[in-house]
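Pasting as-is:
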Amino acid sequence: MTIETIRSALGATVLAGMEHLQTNISHVYASDLMSDVLAYGKSNSVLLTGLASQQAVISAHMAEFRGVVLVRGKTMQDGAEEFAREHHIVLLTTGLDMYEACVMIGEKLHGIARVPDREHDKPVQETIVLNNQFSIEGSDFSKAGLVSTEVKSILKKIGIDTAIVRRVAISMFESEMNVIMHAKRAKVDLSLTPQYIELIIDDEGKGIPDIELAMQEGYTTSTEEQRAMGFGSGMGLPNIKRNSDELDVSSDVGRGTLVRMRFFI
């Protein structure tokens, strides 16, 4: 099915990405919790959400979604439309609520064969070694996701397999959000060797008293305000562990946390 099929079923208005309406998709995922989207959403999907913020679009980009549909007539107010256009994501809005939207899509697609997943690009053929550094400022939600987007863009430009890029992007985005929500600032080091991609996030902050507890799904120390933005559901570190091939987390309470992850090529 195409995104236009979804738009037609919902009577939705296009906010961005009109030229990409004929993009084929394989799945539709409905959620307001962006960590769940990153954990369970499948690439080549459209996201239905009531979270009308740039973080919904950035999360979709990290997870390799092709479109975002805002339910209940919501529109974006924080630059999300520009981000969607820059990254070729279709952004729609519909007056239907989440349940009604899911029902309408189901009725529209009844009896229509599902389009198979898009074939992934071939892995990079030549050896490329690089090293990039970035910085993240804590509590700056206006820039949340920018480092993750840059990391993803770099890896895609040099030809890393799209499935690997998706796992790296999700892990980096979760790490970035952890810094913004819980630390003062962080340094990020991205390295690529012929064998693996490595990300090191070294933050200054309150640290993690119990790493084993923090690795459990659902455990969170986030505020109500942070959860209202779709984050802080206790899926950050578990998502990173799920997507990385190697993960090491060390922390000094009162000083900060160091997260080292590797993704084999």
